[in-house]
Each structure stands twice: as structure tokens, then as C-alpha cells.
Amino acid sequence: FRSLAPDARLNPHRSLLGTGNYDVNVIMAALQGLGLAAVWWDKRRPLERLALGQIVGFILNVPSGVSLGAVSLPLRRQHWLAVRRLCGTYYNLDSKLEAPAPIGGDAELRSFLRDFLSRGLCEVFLVVPKAVEEAGAWLNPE
After folding, report:
1. Which residue segment(s) compose the domain that 108 sits in?
2. DSSP state of 67
3. What is the side-by-side strand order in the sheet with 57-68?
4. CA-CA distance, 108 to 101, in Å (whole number)?
5. DSSP assigned state of 49
């Protein structure tokens, strides 16, 4: 991954301020190294088409406010967060939270995703095993 994240001052794969927010190429390369793939979710599709049993997790790129200490600035930037299921419950693993936040089961997950997608400027990636990606098995038939 060194080629995607060199120690150079200017790195095309992260924000100009060097505060992280790596682009999707870094995420895809990291997942590929684990035998996984990130599949972009077309928001025009209904979320009921997700084959949740085939999906390892979700990565969302969402708008996020910028603050300096307690002062909120009138700026927006994109932020990555992950969602993963453990023992039948989905959890929001956003690093801005103090602890993982339980979302609930399948219906609550779809509602959670629908809420983020309705805000606009949000992208959802499905994390699936490589074989699931190749077979298109992350999508239920219509």
C-alpha cells in the first residue's frame, strides 16, 4: 500500500491538509489484499435488492462538518464510515462516535442507509468477498 500512501508531503490519495479522508482507491486496494471487493451501490436501486447475507459490510462516504475545537466552521468535507454486522446486529463504526452504535437488524439497516442516501452527496459501497462480486450475488433478482 506504500504506493498509494507514500510519506511524501503531497499525496494524491488523501486530503490536502493531510488529515486522512483517503480516496476510494486506497480502500479498494486494502480490501483487495483481504480477498474482498468494494461494490458501488447505485442509489436508484431499491435497498430491498441488497442480498444482505452475501455482504460483509458497508462503507459510506458522507458529508461531514468541519470544526476547530468547539467552533463549527461553515465548511463541508467528505467522511468515511463503516457498517458491519455482528451476531445479527448491524453497527455504525464511525470513528467520530465514542463507541460503535447499534443500528439493528436488516430493516433498520435499510432505513439507516436510506436516511444517509436521502441527504445527498452520499456514496455507499458494499464490502463483499471477491467471488460474490464476480458472480453479482450481492444483488437480489427483481
Report:
1. 39-131
2. E
3. 36-40, 123-129, 57-68, 71-86, 89-92, 101-104
4. 12
5. G
- Looking at the 3D structure of the chain, how many domains does it have? 1
pLDDT tens per residue, range 10-25: 444 444 444 455 677 8
Q: C-alpha grid cell for residue 119?
A: 441527504
Mean pLDDT score of the chain: 83
Contact 39/45 with Cβ under 8 angstroms?
A: no
Distance of CA 112 to the CA centre of its chain: 13
Strand partners, 62: 79
Distance in angstroms (rounded) separating the CA atoms of residues 88 and 72: 36
Residue 136 covered by a domain: no
Q: What is the pLDDT of residue 17?
A: 46
Residue 65 has a pLDDT of 57
Is residue 62 in a domain?
A: yes
The one-character DSSP state at 21 is -
pTM reported for the whole predicted model: 0.79
pLDDT at position 79, please? 85
CATH number at 45 reads 3.90.70.40
Kindly state the DSSP code that residue 9 receives in the 8-state scheme: S
